[in-house]
Amino acid sequence: MDAYPRSTGKLEKHNLSEPFRKSYKYKFILQESKSIKIDSSVSEVTFNSNRGPIRVDVKIECQRNNLLIEPFFTHSINETKRNKIIDLDETVIDIALQLFGPAKGYYFTLENFRNNVVHGTGTKSWFYFKKKK
Q1: I need a labelling partner for 38 at 20 to 30 A (CA). Which of 62, 92, 110, 119 fits?
Q2: Is 40 left (phi over 0), alpha (psi -120 to 50) or beta?
Q3: DSSP-assigned states of every residue in 114-133
Q4: Mind listing the pLDDT tens digit for each residue in 76-105?
């Protein structure tokens, strides 16, 4: 099964990769990638939303803003967690790790992992953009 849903809109004619088609619903402008300075990072962090506690896999702080990272092997963020993220109003990126999971026998090199997850675009997608400034 494909990690990214197929788009039925007009984006196919622009030859955008699947992650960009998935993320397009957020109406952002595609631009050149740039490096950001990470001030701190913490794994397994619990936040309190109005809908109850939410645990995220990685919280990165950069320029006094949070960026939450949710890697997954089999399925992305479920509806309950999605609603808590919306209530929390923090930017979230999900990262598909099927290439490195049990179905593939966990056989990969650190270089292969880094190239796909850190530098590649095929495994990452914007799940939610923070609305508050």
Answers
A1: 110
A2: beta
A3: HIIIII-STTEEEEE-----
A4: 899 999 999 999 999 999 988 887 776 667
